C-alpha cells in the first residue's frame, strides 16, 4: 500500500466551494436578508454543478461517473458488507457513495434552477420570473422550498456517512478530500488535468453568462410604476 493521489485539485476545490456556497445560500435568505447575494452565489453554485457534471466525463479517473457509478447488483453486495470494518476500501467513491454524489448534485441543481423562476416579493426576481406563468412560479417556489429540506436531509446523511467511515471503518476520507491522497494499492492519478479544467471553467462561465444575462426575457413593466 502506498500514498497515492486520488482526488484531483478541481474535485477538491469544487467540494469545499460547494460547501461554502450551500452555507452561504442558507445564511443569505434566512439570516441576512441579502437576496441579491443569494442570487449571485446561486449562479455561482449552478456554475459549480455544471462544472462537476462535465468533469464527471472529462476529469481524472476517480472523478469520472463511469468509475464510480455501478449497477444495483454491486450496490447491494457492497451494502451487505458495509458494517464490516475490514471490508475493502475504495480508492474513489464506493458504490453507495457514488449514487449519493449524484443525488446531491441533482438536488442542488434542482434548487438552483427552481430559484431562477421565483422572486422575494419585494424587488428581486430571478431572471426567468417573467418567462413563466404565475402557476409555474408557484410550483417553482414549492420546489425551491421543499428541495432545500430534502437537501438538508441528504447532507446530514452524507456527513453521517463520512463520520461512520472515519470512526468505525477507520478510513480517513476527510483528509483525502483536503490533500487528495489515500493509502491504497489502486493506481493513483498522474495529474489534476488543470488545463482541461481551465477550458471547462471558461465554457461554464460562457454558458452561465448566456443563461443569466442573454437568454432571459426583459422584465415585465409594472404599470403601477407610472401612477
Ligand atoms: C453543504 C454540505 C456538503 C455538500 C453539499 C457536500 C457534497 C459532496 C459531494 C457532491 C461530494 C462528491 C465529490 C465529488 O466527487 O465531486 C462529496 C464528497 C465528500 N464530502 Fe461532502 N459535502 C458537504 C459537506 C461535507 C462535510 C462537512 C464534510 C466533512 C466533514 C464532507 C466530506 C466529504 C468527503 C470526505 C467526501 C469524499 C467521500 C468519498 O471518499 O467517497 N462533506 N461531498
Ligand atoms: C443553488 C443553490 C441555492 C440554494 C441552496 C438556495 C436556498 C434557498 C433557501 C434555503 C431559501 C429559503 C427557503 C425557505 O424560506 O423555505 C431560498 C429562498 C429563495 N431563493 Fe434560493 N437557493 C439557491 C439558489 C437560488 C437561485 C439561483 C435563485 C435565483 C436566482 C434563488 C432565489 C431565491 C428566492 C427569490 C428566494 C425567496 C427569498 C424570500 O422569500 O425572501 N435561489 N433559497
UniProtKB/TrEMBL annotation:
UniProtKB keywords: Cell membrane, Membrane, Transmembrane, Transmembrane helix
Major localization class: membrane
Gene Ontology BP term (one): respiratory electron transport chain
Source organism, top-level taxon: Bacteria
InterPro entries: Cyt_b561_bac/Ni-Hgenase, Di-haem_cyt_TM, Hydrogenase_cytochrome
One cellular-component annotation, GO: plasma membrane
GO molecular function terms listed in the Swiss-Prot or TrEMBL record: electron transfer activity; heme binding
Topology in the lipid bilayer: Multi-pass membrane protein
Protein name: Cytochrome B
Native organism: Alteromonas lipolytica
Amino acid at each position: 500500500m502506498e500514498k497515492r493521489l486520488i482526488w484531483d485539485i478541481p474535485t477538491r476545490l469544487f467540494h469545499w466551494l460547494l460547501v461554502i456556497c450551500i452555507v452561504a445560500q442558507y445564511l443569505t435568505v434566512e439570516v441576512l436578508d441579502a437576496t441579491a447575494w443569494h442570487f449571485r452565489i446561486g449562479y455561482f453554485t449552478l456554475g459549480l454543478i455544471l462544472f462537476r457534471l462535465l468533469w464527471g466525463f472529462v476529469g481524472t479517473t476517480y472523478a469520472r461517473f463511469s468509475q464510480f457509478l455501478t449497477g444495483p447488483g454491486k450496490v447491494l453486495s457492497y451494502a451487505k458488507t458495509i458494517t464490516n470494518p475490514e471490508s475493502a476500501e475504495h480508492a474513489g467513491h464506493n458504490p453507495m457513495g457514488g449514487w449519493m454524489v449524484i443525488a446531491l448534485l441533482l438536488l442542488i441543481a434542482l434548487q438552483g434552477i427552481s430559484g431562477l423562476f421565483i422572486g422575494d416579493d419585494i424587488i428581486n426576481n430571478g431572471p426567468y420570473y417573467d418567462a413563466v406563468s404565475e402557476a409555474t412560479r408557484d410550483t417553482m417556489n414549492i420546489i425551491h422550498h421543499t428541495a432545500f429540506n430534502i437537501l438538508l436531509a441528504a447532507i446530514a446523511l452524507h456527513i453521517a456517512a463520512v463520520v461512520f467511515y472515519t470512526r468505525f471503518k477507520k478510513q480517513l476520507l476527510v483528509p483525502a478530500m483536503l490533500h487528495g491522497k489515500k493509502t491504497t494499492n489502486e493506481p493513483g492519478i498522474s495529474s489534476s488535468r488543470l488545463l482541461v479544467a481551465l477550458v471547462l471553467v471558461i465554457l461554464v462561465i460562457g454558458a452561465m453568462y448566456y443563461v443569466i444575462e442573454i437568454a432571459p426575457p426583459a422584465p415585465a413593466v409594472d404599470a403601477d410604476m407610472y401612477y
